[in-house]
Amino acid sequence: MPFDQESTGYEKTILSDLQGAWILLRQSVVDTNGFEGWDRALFHIDEAMSWEVVRDLRRMQPLLLVIRNICAQGPAPQDVVDCIQEIDEILTETLTMYPK
Length: 100
Description:
Largest sheet: none
Number of strands: 0
Distance between the termini: 39 Å
Radius of gyration: 15 Å
Mean pLDDT: 91
Number of helices: 5
């Protein structure tokens, strides 16, 4: 029985940028020594990266708003805030490219 070959080339898309931005935000929150609400933010970040939400990208915007509010109340370090802003920009562009 033959095995499928692993693809040797991948096309970089806005979706890979979005995934990378979420990963960076998650790591940024984990790397902080904690701020008020960091655990709740992490819960919602994981939810935003879940298969169910990725299949329906419109569900990301409300989660990002919740995360932003938690981090603002924290207050979260500037690195976390910058990551949130990056996700917001990429998500806006992504939803323009993939409206449904």
